[in-house]
Structures are given as structure tokens and as C-alpha cells.
Amino acid sequence: MSLFLFKRFVTLIATLIGASIIVFLVLEILPGNAAQILMGPDAAPDAVAALAAKLGLDQPAWTRYWHWIGGLLTGNLGDSYAYSSPVIDLILERLALTIPLALLAMTFTTVLALLVGVTAAARHNKLGDVGLMGLTQIGIAIPNFWFAILLILVFSVQLQWFSAGGFEGWDEGVLAGLKSLLLPALSLAVVQAAILARITRSAVLEVMREDFVRTARAKGVSQRAVLWRHVLRNALIPVITVMGMQFSELLAGTIVVENVFYLPGLGRLIFQAISNRDLIVVRNCVMLLAAMVVIVNFVVDVLYAVIDPRIKAHDI
Amino acid sequence: MTNTPANTPLLEVTDLVRHYALPRERLFGTPPMVKALNGVSFSVRPGRSLGIVGESGSGKSTIARLVMALDKPTSGVIRLLGEDLHALPKDALRKARRNFQMVFQDPYGSLDPRQTVERIVAEPLEALGETTRAQQRELAGESLVAVGLRLADLHKYPHEFSGGQRQRIAIARALITRPKLIVADEPVSALDVSVQAQVLNLMQDLQQQYGISYLLISHDLAVVNHLCDEVCVLHRGLVVERGEPQHLFAHAEHPYTQALLAAVPRAEPVIAS
Amino acid sequence: MPLLEVKDLHVQLQTQRGPAEAVRGIDFTLERGETLGIVGESGCGKSITVQSLMGLLPSTAKVSGSIRFDGTELVGLPERAMCKIRGDRIGMIFQEPMTALNPVHTVARQVGEPLRLHRGLSAAEARKEVLALLDRVGIPDAASRLDAYPHQFSGGQRQRIGIAMALACGPDLLIADEPTTALDVTIQKQILDLIRGLVAERGMALILISHDLGVIAQNVSKMLVMYGGSVVESGPTSSVFAERAHPYTRGLFAARPELGTPRGARLATIKGSVPELVDLPKGCPFAGRCRYTVDACHATCPPEVQLPHEHLVRCIRLGEIAAEESIAA
Amino acid sequence: MSAVPAAVPGTAPGQTSGFWRRAMHHRSFVIGGVLTLLLVLAATVSLAWTPWSPYEMDIASKLQKPSAAHWLGTDTFGRDVASLLLVGARASILVGVIAVGIGLTVGTALGLLAAARRGWVEEAIMRFADFSMAFPAILSAIMMTAVFGAGIVNAIIAIGIYNIPTFARITRASANAIWSREYIAAARACGKGSFAITMQHVLPNISAVLIVQITIRFAIAILAEAALSYLGLGTQPPQPSWGRMLSEAQTMMFQAPLLAVFPGVAIALAVLGLNLLGDGLRDLLDPRLARAR
Amino acid sequence: QGRKDSMVIGMALEPPGLDPTAGAASAIAEIVQYNILETLTKINPDGSVTPLLAESWEVSPDLRTYTFKLRRGVKFQNGEPFSAQTVKFSFDRAGAEKSTNKDKRTFANLSTQVVDDATVVLINKEIDPDLPFLLGQATAVIVEPKSADANATKPVGTGPYKLDAWNKGSSVVVSKWEGFRNAGSIKLNKVTFRFISDPAAQAAAMLAGDVDAFPRIATRVVPQFKANPQFQVILSGSRAKTILSINNKRKPLDDVRVRRAISAAIDRKAVIEGAVDGFGVPIGSHYVPGAPGYVDTTGVNPFNIEKAKQLLAEAGVKTPLELTMTLPPPPYARQGGEVIAAQLAKIGINVKIQNVEWAQWLSGTYGNKDYDLSIVSHVEPFDLGNYAKTDYYWQYQSKDFNAVYDKIKTTGNAAERNKLLGDAQRILANDAANVFLFQPQWPTVAKKGVKGLWKDMPIFVNDLSTLSW
Ligand SMILES: Nc1ncnc2c1ncn2[C@@H]1O[C@H](COP(=O)(O)OP(=O)(O)OP(=O)(O)O)[C@@H](O)[C@H]1O
Ligand SMILES: Nc1ncnc2c1ncn2[C@@H]1O[C@H](COP(=O)(O)OP(=O)(O)OP(=O)(O)O)[C@@H](O)[C@H]1O
Ligand SMILES: [Mg+2]
Ligand SMILES: [Mg+2]
């Protein structure tokens, strides 16, 4: 296991270095200059130049790259051009929303998908199965921003159970915070849950054909218990593989959903920062997202081994 | 080994060793090894058949893979018709393959479910690349008839056949290049007794008809006894005993062979009702 | 009252090509401590028969007839009640030791599951029991291997674990569905010795399925020969082996290569192959493949003919066969 | 030698005619096929004819309810929604076909290569897949549009690129499973090279997995285009696409909810059709299931 | 509705910082101006200029010297006193070499002299009768030397409110400053600015009751509130001019007939309907109704397709003429662009729409002047001067206009100035320098009980001191 962890760690670092180069290069060729954007169209040219110098935009790319990497390692990411406050603070503030949001959405996705997938598999080819799978077909076809508005229409405008968006921070209490993340998480989760439910169903059906299921039933374990205790865990390998991929899609989806619910999250920060050419923010956020995805994939790999004892490190 | 060689051997295996390195468990230190074969030698003369028996994991399939040049030995030499198989260049090896073919254990897994019987049977020809499509079809048909199937079966898919019929298809595929040697790794162990009998009879007939030699791998002593002129008993990657089956089974000397024989249940009822 | 009494058991399965009678009218009884073997070609319905005893068939299967187990009618018994019997009063060992165990649960958990389920033991108590069971079936150094996973055991050891699981609650009836087909001879011998010992020791009834006649001969006192979903011959093992009254039984015995036969001798084969269940003929299932077939064979399913020693055969041509045999001799 | 094969009910030699005959009896294939055909038909018809010009504005009659003149009503610019839907089908098909095409060709090729070569090639390809997975479609689309400007082409490329690792991973996993089959060993014993084996044995046998994945990815691509349109990065005006219609209608959800319903339903039907078609195709192409249903 | 002392105000965009002297985003002023930071003068809803931190001022006849009398006893929120020195500091800082003030040029032309603690004299190098107005804008806020550099995150001013919290990406909270010179007149104790950019989300937030008032809400969502008795809708005039800017140097747009043809092809009514859902007033030149010296020039190039086609033909333009239209992100541009493209198609001009972000617009369109057509709202109250700059992005050049504009700059007499302004407007209209589309009206949606909202908006501010329930 230690060797496996080491190897995996090395590739993880290599991936991150690759990502950092790509991110830096792509942002390097972006047209438009942060100083000009910040100053607006009618600003005096020398004012713009002064700002550019202040922001360090006049140095060569190579220097700035090293500067950035050095900063990444020491935790000093520099100051946002636009907010003129430390990027690290900005990002941490936003993460306090985006991570709980993504986790909540992932939880919804998982719970919904497992419930629907396992139930459908248990009623294979019966009415319940057909009905649930029909629902997932619809679920797959719904764009998340559209579903988000629908949720707002019903739960905020009509029923007034939730506010239509916004996030007051965790100071108001964990419950209040979760409440304002509920609808966004749900609208993020619905498509992913539909996809995952279909995958769960087929994985469960596959496992249900295995011999050990019969063995378990021969011991007197009831159908339901067999499903949840014996079948599900074996079906989890394909399920978590897909979950790993979905996590990155969820993270990306937050860009859209945070917009609809005007949540101060990482996704919106990136989107705004790109249009502001606040490259220092973009660069670090994109890097962070990439790192999160890479780390989630790493976790998924480790989870394989946790779920299935047969999988030794080297099989991965 | 009791017989003096009448002519040059068809297949000659000398000091075959195959060790598998398992992936390292830790960063530094030698990776663990599985010593599947530890110096096996035997030879097969033209038209004669050799059986290899042994318990699970004794290295039987490893021998088959090495002889078929699907895997490289750690050391040792395999000569087919005097040529060192593992030293042949790629192209020459492909040409040489017409002389040795293989029949696999699992009649359900060894036929591509998405190909027609025609394509399956003609595959060795196709790989050789010396014949046209039409010739391949014709030869495939002939081969199929030789194993007791019908021409009409050419257009069917494997799933439309029973286990015994599938094993016939596999044999037809092995037969199509008129090989001198067929390596059969447990060709009947997945089959039912009655079907097994059909396949064994077929193999016997083909041997007589075409002068094929078999390298038959099995854990069923009776099957080997039925088909082979000579038997090697394999134990932990070594040949512990060899000889004519009749003789060997009657006068086993090595304790492992004896244990093996003792374990075979006799079809004589012992419990009185 | 016999422990198990099966009368006119029919099982209909839903296949891709429509409904198929996989088991068509089977009768047998089994007393406590008695051993019964079932032989027959692959696909003749052996497993379906025993799975119907356990209520393990897919939900689309239709079972009719009567299965009385210790006075309880199992046909139509609700799933809940059936769960109480499975694993407690009837234990089952399966063919494939490699796939019959759940790969993601520890051995202790799997073997302990029936104990916790039926005996209501706590995890710790179950663990103690499991240890004893694993010792009993001969897992070396069982104490240290309780928390190991199935893939860490060899095939023979896994089969032993399967046996321990089936025996956990001390069942009255043990069903072994081809328990050794996947194992090589030396290990097969160990396993069969183990089962035989346990049966003798605990006085369980045993149903042993195998298509290996040697295995049957060595392990059971009476046997059924199945073909095409019905029993074509049944009786005491010694009697069936001696008489081989049904043409199919003969074919089966003759097809088996045996050590000691001279090389080059041809094996007798049964021509044709087992018919698919959906297109089984109306009359005798073996009609058509049988040398002695006459028109009457196709008409109806032959009735049982009683031979000495409670030996039953379903064939209408016994006389002719006997006559031919005596001529040949 | 006496064994005569039992009569096996099988398919006639003429396979192609049999395929269509079977296909016509396959419920999901037929329904999915009809829906997909309608989608293609809508796109094709729109090239020649639409009830109204999709670019013709009549601001005076904006936001009308469905009527005989405007079957599905009009949008905020007074354009005919039905015509927009017809023309919008083109963009959706384009996005789906090309984005999935990119992912399928490149990703599958990489996955097959990884499975065939194993060792460091496989390791490198899979790490590359992990790496590109780190840039979700929306993220790369945002970055690409920032560099090259917004437009459908960049959206398609971004979605396509994201599809590559998905297909690569799935292909590799299934291909590895196929490579461990005995019929592959048989082909190798015949002297076939990795390339021939990959094309003749591996690819056909993973086609079922690929087909299902294609239909799912197609659906996701259409949705991704919608999300990008929502952010203003997808199809550019005046070219309509379902995604853009949806994102425009989204601002009108409180006043004219029907505007958001029509493109939504269109997307749902297209996705449903493709999924059903995929399921059907998978069954029909599998000789083992040929007789089923 | 009971008495409430807090309010939530919606804003479409979040400011990048809170220092209006360092950044140009109008969102900065919308939060801080008049609330936290104050100016010498105050611009009122009607466009008039009245004293704020100054008590009064005098202008020399040559319009070059301004003498401001300052309010006494005013303190900054950090306790420092406000005086002539702070004014000098602020203006010198704004005009300094390193300054990043948007109006740096204005301040660079000023020299500020302290007469006594309560008197400053400003001497302007150029003549600008509008100086009192300029000094009421956010770029001219008076800052305190010790705290000035931290204003972007912790603004310290003399205004009635102080910053409580800035939840980045979400909201800014300000609360009443008890030390304000006139604290008694301030009704609201706490005001939250919440940032919601998505139009549907804006509507949802209003409907769900999360936001009490939303100035400059997206026009798309306004109609539904008009009919809703729980809400009030206020339409305020502005000094903004939404125009279809034309690259006057590009062929064939350098031909005045082509530009006139484009003007004549555009139905402003439909554009207003399509771009801002009817919330706009047609204009004919770069000047808006309500501004001093306005003349109606909408009749100069009236909507007339036949005329437009004829003009194109006269200019010898072969149709279809391919032009690109570069559109920045705001809805008025994106939606208006679609409408205009459809209208130009009718006279044989094929417009290719290119949507860009502000960043690209600024560097490509504005900076490199690489465009044919664009749509932008020019929000500076008085910016005719841009037509006199030859390098401005529309690259308009006219000797006549420059002559008139030079006179405007030096004319102090209102009547004379207004006449000159009228001339300038007519020149621009005749030259069809750009297509002048409309003066936008900013809709404000608020709950019924909200009082004191500005009716007109010459500049973008949210004057909290007037608000109450
Ligand atoms: N690729 C491999 N990597 C590592 N070990 C291997 C590999 N292939 C085979 N072995 C090991 O080599 C030994 C011999 O294997 P082989 O398959 O030849 O046995 P066998 O005699 O054919 O057994 P069986 O009767 O079960 O088929 C076994 O211990 C097996 O685990
Ligand atoms: N779930 C099922 N659905 C449909 N048909 C089935 C099902 N299970 C088994 N069958 C069919 O029923 C017949 C009898 O099967 P069964 O498993 O009892 O055979 P068996 O005698 O145990 O054979 P083997 O020796 O191969 O285990 C076979 O033809 C099989 O294909
Ligand atoms: Mg083997
Ligand atoms: Mg069975």
C-alpha cells in the first residue's frame, strides 16, 4: 500500500504541475488587460499604466510563473487585482460555500441515486422499475439552471419556504446555512442523480446475478437485506467511478447554479474574475478546482481498495 | 523416456522455467515471485500425444501458454520442428503458427460471441494472410464438416450452439491449418460426461485421420489415459513422474502420483442402503 | 413422518423463448440421516429441483406440487417464513467456491450471518461460534483468519467456509449442489470426506448433486437419475449401479472414461444433445436420442416401473432392452 | 463421429434483412428511432421551410400565447417559437454529433491503445485522462471563449475535449475485460497482432458499452450547450439553439413560463429518443439477444 | 407594515472594491457615495448641484477660479476632522502621478490652495463650467489621509453610514453612524446591499421578499411588477445615452450617406421595446432630454427603409453589405443587437453578431478600434467632448463640431452655452456620427412601503439618507 500511495502521489504532483502550466499559459494569452478593465474605458492611459505596474503586470511571464508557484507553496497567493485583498482569503471565503454546496449536492445525488437505482433493480422489469427509469430519463434531460428556477418558483415564490437565493454565511448557524444551500444543491443533484441511478441499477442487476447472492439467500437473509447488505457494496465500484467523474461536473455546475441563486461561491468568483481579467484569482481558482478534481480521483482510487478487499493497490 | 526416439521430436522442451514477478508491495526490496515452472523438460514425437496432469496451480496452463508462444519463458528452450520458437522473428513465428494450434478449456469463453462461426474457424488462415476470403470460407466449411458440424452452421453465432458443439468449433478452428501439434488445455473439463465422450472420440478420430499430435493438459487422469501415449505428472512446476499412462497409473512410484490416483473416486457404491 | 417428502413437483421457468417446464413431476422422500444423490447431464434440472426446495428460484418461476418439510408445506410458503427455514433448518453448499462467497465481507461476518439471523447471537458470540465451526471444517489456524476475506483463501478452503456456513445453525437437511466440481481430485476427496463425516456425526439428511458417478457411488445410499426435468430412474445406489435399467443411465455410465481401460478404445456416446427445455418432447424426454425409441415413446411420459429394492424406472421398453442384452451376452 | 447437431433454431443467413425485421419489433428501438428521426427531420425541414422566418421580429406581437398563426406562440422579440424550435434542432444535433464524435474517436482510440499496450503506455494515458478530467467542460469553455471569443465552435470543442477522458476510461475498462477473455488468447495463438485483435474482437465486443455511453454523452452535450448558452458562451445570436432559447426563456419564467417549456420538452424528447435508440441498438447488435423480445 | 429600521437593496453587480477614487465601476459609487464617502457638492435627482461638504462656492467670471467655503465641525468616521487640508489632500492625490483615479485628468488640471481651515480655492487650467457637477461625482470624494489607502476594503468617510461587513460575492452591510452631523434625520439603521446579477434571480428575490428595493433592476422582469399591488415601480430618467456606435474610419462607414442609411433603417421604438422592454426615450443625438440645452433631433434621420436603401445605393454600396457588431455583456446590448441586426437585414446589411466580455470589448473595440458596429450605453452625464477627440473609439472627426465644442468649453453664459450645445447636437445628428438610440430609463422595483427613492438618476447612487419605510 505504501508503494501504491507513493506512486499515486507522484502522479498527482505531476498532474498538478501540468495543470498549473496549462492554466498559466491559457490565461497568459487572454486578450485584455486587468488594469484597463479595472479603470474603465474613459480612464487616462497613464493611470492604466500606473495600475499595471502596481499589479506587477509588466514583468515577464516566466518570472510571474515562478512567482506564482512559489506563492502557491508558501500559501501567499498575492492580492486580487479587483478586490485588492489577498486571494487566499477570497478563495477560502468562497470555499466555505462551494465545498459544502458540492458535498450537499453529492450527498443528494448519492442518496437519491442509490434509493432509486436499488429500488428499480429490485423491481426489475416491473412497473416500479419502468416508472423510476422513466423518471430518470426526464431527470437526465433537465438543465440545472432551468430546474433551479422551477424550484425557486415553487418553494420561494409560491410557498415562501426558502429565500430565493443568497447566502448569509455560517455565522447565522449551520442550519440556516444549510437551508440556503438546499435548493441549489437539489438543482445540481437532479441530473447527476438521474445518471447515477441508472448506473446503480445496472450495477446492482449485474451483481444480483452473482452466485454469492444465492448463497446469502440460502442463509435465510431476506431479499431486502441481501440487496442492501450484500449486493450494494459489490455494486459500488462502477458507482463510485462515476461519482468521481460527477464530482468534477458538480463543481463546474456550481458556476451556473451559483449564478441563479446568487451565491458567493468559487464558481461565480471564477466567472467574474475571468470577465474582470482578475487573472491572479482565475489562475488560483482554476488551479484549485483542478486540484480538487485530481484529489477526488485519488480518493476514489483509494476507496476502491476500501470497498473491495480484493483490489490490491497494484490493480488500480 | 523408456522409448528410444524413432525420429526427431516434433516438440522439444528443455529446462523450461517461468517465474512471475508479482507487483512490489513496498517501494524498496525485491518483488515477490511465483515460481510457476522450475525446469521442465519433455518432448513430443510426431503423431504421438503427451498428457500433462497435475493439481491446480502446478503450472499446466503456463506450459501451454509458453508452448503457444503467448508468453515468454524466464529461461529454457522450446523447439518446434527443430526451431527455437522464442528466438524466431515475429513474421517467421506467425508463419510457423500454422503448425501448432490450441484448443481452450472454456467452450463458452473461447469463441468471440460477435463473430460468425465462419470467421471464427477461418481466423488462423486470416492471420496467416495467404488465402482469399472465398478460400477461407471453403476451408472453414471443410473443417467444420470434419468435426461433425454442418455447412449451414457457418453463418451462425456461437451462442446458438451447445457446449459440446462449441468445443467442436474450437477444434475446427485449430484444425484448419492442418497443424502438426494441437495444444489442448483442459479441453473437456467444462463439459458433461456424455458430451465429453463425443469430443474425446472426435479428437481421437482426428489424430488417426491427420496424424496430429496432442499436448493434452488435464487434471482428469482418465481423460489423459484415454488419449495419450505418454503422461507427465507435474507437481509444483516440476515433472515428478512420466511414462506410459497404463503403466504409470498401475505402478505409480512418486507419492504425489499415488495421492492423485487415490483421490479419484471409483464408481463403485460403498454405502449400503 | 419423513423429514422431506416431495410429491409431483413441477417448476415452470420464464425463459427468453417462453415458459419452460424445467422440472416435471418429481417424487421422493428423505428420512432423517438418509443420503440422496442426484445425477444427470448438465441442464437436466438438478439445481432447479433443489433450489425449489429452498425457495431460491427467481420470482418468475412457478412451483406446483407439494414439498413437505418436517410437516410444513413449503410450496406457497410466504417469503418471511421461508427465510426462517433457509439457513436454519436447511443448509446449502454451492458448486463454485470461487464465486459463492461475498468478496467484500470478512469470513467471520459471512459465516456468522445465519447465527445472528436465526439464533439471535451478538457479534461477539457469533464470532466464537464461527471459530469453532471453522476449526471443525478444518481451516488451519482459524483464529487468525477470521477477519480475512474470501480471496485470501484457496479454493478448497473456500469450499470449507461454504460448508461451515451451511452447517452454522445445525440444519436437519444439507443440500450440496455439485460441491466439488470446481476442485481438483485431491481436494475433492478431502471435502467429500468432510461432508460424509459430518453427516454421520450429526445425523443430518443429505442431498448431494453431482454428475460424477464416482462421487455419487462413494457418498450416498440412494439416488435419482434425472433427464430433461424428470426422474428416469431412482433407487438404492447399489441397485441403480448394478442394474442401469434406463437407457439413459446406461449411456451416462458408458460415456465416462475410466482409468484402466485400454488406450484407443472408443467411448460410447449418446448421440444428439440434451434438448432445450422449451422444446422438450411430449413423451419420454429421452425419446429420439435413445436407441430403443418406438412411436409409443413419443406419445406419453412413461409410467414408473417397479424393480426389486424400491428401484423405479420410467421406461416402457425395459423388456426389449433386457432381451437384447441377453442376446449380446 | 455419429453426433449430428441437434436442430438449433437460428437466424437465416441473410442477416441484414433480419436486422430490420427484428428492429421493427423492438419496442424501445422503434420509439427511440421515431423520436430521433423526428429530431433529424425537424433539422432537415428547417433548412427549407419554417412556418415563419426564425429571424423575423415583430416586437408588437411579442409574448403571444399559442394560436393558429403561431402554433407555440411568440418570444420576447415576437419571433415564432415553433420556427425557432425547428431551426434550433440543428445546433443541438451539431453540438451532440461533433462533441460526442471528438470524445468517441479520440477517447476510444486512447482507451483501446491503453488496453492493448498496457504498461507505461496505459499508465500515461490514464494519467492524461485524469488530468484532462480536471478541467470540466464549462471551465474549459469559459477559458476558451475568453481567448477565442464566444461561439458554438468553441463550446463544441470544449465539450468534446471533456468527453475524451470519459470515453478513454470507459473504453479501457471494458477493453481490459475483453482482453482477458479466452477468445483473445485464441486470436493471439493464431498469430494476430494487437491492432487486428483490437479492431476485430475488442471493439465489437465493447460496442454495447460504447453505444450506451454515446447516447448518455449526447444528452449531456445538449445540456452542456444549454448551460454554456446560459452563461452566454454557447450559440451566438441570431442563430437559435434549444439551449439558448431555454436560457433566454429562463429570465421570463415568471411571466411566460410556456417559453421555457417548449425547448425543455424538445430537449427531453430528443434525449429520451436517443437513449431508447441506444438501448435498442445495443440489444439488436448483440447476436445473443437477437431473438429476444 | 410596521416600522422597520432596516432595508435590503438589490444591486446587479458587485463592486470590485469600495474606493471610488481607485476603481471605475459604478457599483462602487452605488454603495459608498453620499452614504459613506461624501463630496463637496451633491448632485440631486433633477441634476441640480447643491452644497454638501461645502457650504457654498463662488466662481470667478473667467470660470477658472472656484472658492469653496467648507462646512465646519465635520468629522471623519475615524475621528479625524474634516478641513481644507483634507480637501487639498484628496484632490492632489486624485491628480497625482501615481493616481488611478478615473478622472485623473480633471484633477491634474486643478491646483488646490488652502486659504484657511474652512476655505479652499481651486484654480482650473481649463475652463469647465460643469466643475461643481464633477466635484459631486464619486471620483471627487473627500478622503482622510490616514485611512485613504485602505478605502478599498475599509472606507472611512464623513457620511451617515459606515461599513459593517462585506461578504464578498454576496452582500455589503452598512449601518448608521451615530457620529454623523445630522444623525437624527437618518431613518434606517441598517442597510444591506445584495448582489444579484441574473435577471430571473432578481425577480425571484423580489417576489420571495428577500429584497426590499431594486434600483436599475433588469428591464425584462419589470412588467410583472407593474400589475402587482405589493410593489411599486419607479421609472427614472438618466443622463445615459445608449447608442449604436459606428467606426467612422472604416469603409464604407466613413461615408456619411451610409451612416445615415443605417440610422434611417433603425426603428428606435422597436429597439427600445426589444432591448430594454420599452424603458427608454428615443434620442437623435448624443444628448438627453432634461439636460440643459437639449434639442429634439430625432427627426433628423427618421425611420424610413426606402430612404435608407436609396442612401445606400447613392453611396454606391453593394448589398448585401457584411458588417460585424461587437456586443458587450449587458442585456440592452445583447438584446438590442439582435433587434438591430434584424432591422439592418431589411436594407441589405448582413450583421454578424459577436458577443464579447467587457475585457475583450475594452481591448479590441475600445482600445484597438477593431470593430464596425457596437452598442454601448454612455453613462457619463456630459461627454460630448469625446466627439472632439480624434482617437476616441468611434473615430469621428468634424472641424465644425470641434469649433463649436471649443466654444462650449469657454462659454460661461447659460443661454449662449445652451445655443452652442444645440448646434453641437445638430451637427452630430446630421453627420450620423453614431446611431443615437435612446435615453434609458432605469426601472426601480420596490415594495409598496419603501419611501424616498430617487425619481431620476443623473448619476448612479443609492442615497440612503432619504430612504424610509
Ligand atoms: N500472469 C501471472 N502472474 C502471476 N502468477 C501467475 C500468472 N499466471 C499464473 N500464475 C501462477 O502460476 C502458477 C501456475 O499457474 P497455471 O495457470 O499454470 O496452473 P494450472 O496448473 O494451469 O492450474 P489450473 O488447474 O488451476 O488451471 C499458479 O500459482 C498461478 O497463480
Ligand atoms: N433463472 C432461469 N431462467 C430460465 N431458465 C433457467 C433458469 N435457471 C436455470 N434455467 C434452465 O433450467 C434448466 C435446468 O437448470 P439446472 O440449473 O437445474 O440444471 P442442472 O441440472 O443443475 O445443470 P448443471 O449440471 O449444469 O448445474 C437449464 O436448461 C437451464 O438453462
Ligand atoms: Mg490451467
Ligand atoms: Mg446445477
Automatic annotation (TrEMBL), chain A:
Any Pfam family the entry gives: BPD_transp_1_N
Position of the signal peptide: none
SUPFAM superfamilies for the chain: MetI-like
Keywords associated with the record: Cell membrane, Membrane, Transmembrane, Transmembrane helix, Transport
Family, similarity comment: Belongs to the binding-protein-dependent transport system permease family.
Protein name as it appears in the record: ABC transporter permease
Membrane topology of this protein: Multi-pass membrane protein
Top-level division of the source organism's lineage: Bacteria
Source organism: Variovorax ureilyticus
InterPro entries: BPD_transp_1_N, MetI-like, MetI-like_sf
Subcellular locations according to the entry: Cell membrane
Gene3D superfamilies: MetI-like
Transmembrane segments: 9-30, 99-122, 134-161, 181-199, 286-307
Span of domain ABC transmembrane type-1: 95-304
UniProtKB/TrEMBL annotation, chain B:
Keywords: ATP-binding, Cell membrane, Membrane, Nucleotide-binding, Transport
SUPFAM superfamilies: P-loop containing nucleoside triphosphate hydrolases
GO function terms (MF aspect): ATP binding
Pfam families hit by this protein: ABC_tran (PF00005)
UniProt-listed InterPro entries: AAA+_ATPase, ABC_transp_ATP-bind, ABC_transporter-like_ATP-bd, ABC_transporter-like_CS, P-loop_NTPase
Span of the signal peptide: none
Ranges of residues in domain ABC transporter: 11-261
Gene3D superfamilies per the UniProt record, alphabetical: P-loop containing nucleotide triphosphate hydrolases (3.40.50.300)
Family that this chain belongs to: Belongs to the ABC transporter superfamily.
UniProt protein name: ATP-binding cassette domain-containing protein
Organism: Variovorax ureilyticus
TrEMBL record, chain C:
Bilayer disposition of the protein: Peripheral membrane protein
Gene3D superfamilies associated with the record: P-loop containing nucleotide triphosphate hydrolases (3.40.50.300)
Keywords on record: ATP-binding, Cell membrane, Membrane, Nucleotide-binding, Transport
Annotated signal peptide: none
Source domain of life: Bacteria
GO-annotated molecular function: ATP binding
Protein name in the entry: ABC transporter ATP-binding protein
InterPro entries recorded: AAA+_ATPase, ABC_Ni/Peptide_Import, ABC_transporter-like_ATP-bd, ABC_transporter-like_CS, Oligopep_ABC_C, P-loop_NTPase
Family stated for the protein in its record: Belongs to the ABC transporter superfamily.
Residue stretches making up the ABC transporter domain: 4-253
Annotated localization: Cell inner membrane
Primary location: membrane
Keyword Nucleotide-binding found: yes
UniProtKB/TrEMBL annotation, chain D:
Topology relative to the membrane: Multi-pass membrane protein
Keyword Transferase in annotation: no
Localisation per UniProt entry: Cell membrane
Sequence ranges assigned to domain ABC transmembrane type-1 in this UniProt record: 89-278
Superkingdom per UniProt: Bacteria
Keywords annotated in UniProt: Cell membrane, Membrane, Transmembrane, Transmembrane helix, Transport
PROSITE patterns, per database record: ABC_TM1
Pfam families reported for this sequence: BPD_transp_1, OppC_N
CDD domains the record matches: TM_PBP2
SUPFAM superfamilies found in the cross-reference section: MetI-like
TM segment ranges: 29-49, 93-116, 137-162, 208-233, 254-277
InterPro entries: BP-dependent_transpt_permease, MetI-like, MetI-like_sf, OppC_N
Family affiliation: Belongs to the binding-protein-dependent transport system permease family.
Name of this protein: ABC transporter permease
Lineage, highest ranks first: Bacteria, Pseudomonadati, Pseudomonadota, Betaproteobacteria, Burkholderiales
